[in-house]
Amino acid sequence: MTEELFREDATLLGCDATVVGQGEGGVTLDRTVCYPLGGGQAGDTGWLVSREQRWRIADTRKSKESPGAIVHLIDGEPPAVGTPVRVEVDAPRRQAHRRFHTATHLLCALLPYPVDGCSITETYARLDFHTDQPFDKDALQAGLDRLVAEAHPVGHRWISEEELDANPGLVRSMSVQPPRGLGRVRVLEINGVDLQPCGGTHVSNTAEIGAVVVTKIEKKSAMTRRVVLGFAG
């Protein structure tokens, strides 16, 4: 299994690691700061650096062949197993993901409907809500601005699977369920605003989200309303 340093500290942008496997278009490391594609959030990009060479990390994915392992997709001939490397995350891209992902949690607080789809990228975020109710774009923007300005602390903790089972209302997503089998589940908490299972990367205070704008509200189907976010300017 790959030690997932990003789960505990989303501000960590680099770490030393060792190549422990090759395949699936890249290399597996014993530890990493790179978030793998999942939960609607894009995988991190960045670089692997050894004494002799530098490789571009084009994407980060969960291994399909080895549960618990994370594959770093790289350009060029991969480093050999046993090679010590430095992992470096593309910092501006990571920060965009952190801001957008936290902003989607604010949307969940403002819109009390189940979520049936999401996408978090470097340039936009979207969240699909299962409802036939219309959304007021101006009211939603005002709500986001207020929650950002209120500077709510953002943190995470771990609860047992039994605790989650006892509080099924914590799960807002209809399409992505928290991973099972590890005995514990990571929950993201925005103090006084939102609490739900989430494994993604986030800012540490809502003020760090900065200026985000509701760029579009769409009716995707009879029971789906989509909200799209972008950065101001």
UniProtKB/TrEMBL annotation:
SUPFAM superfamilies recorded: ThrRS/AlaRS common domain, Translation proteins
Subcellular location: Cytoplasm
Entry keywords, A to Z: Metal-binding, Zinc
Record has Nucleotidyltransferase as a keyword: no
GO BP, one annotated term: alanyl-tRNA aminoacylation
Protein's UniProt keywords contain Zinc: yes
Gene Ontology MF terms: alanine-tRNA ligase activity; aminoacyl-tRNA deacylase activity; ATP binding; metal ion binding; nucleic acid binding
GO cellular component: cytoplasm
Name of this protein: Alanine--tRNA ligase
Organism (species): Pelomonas aquatica
Lineage, opening ranks: Bacteria, Pseudomonadati, Pseudomonadota, Betaproteobacteria, Burkholderiales
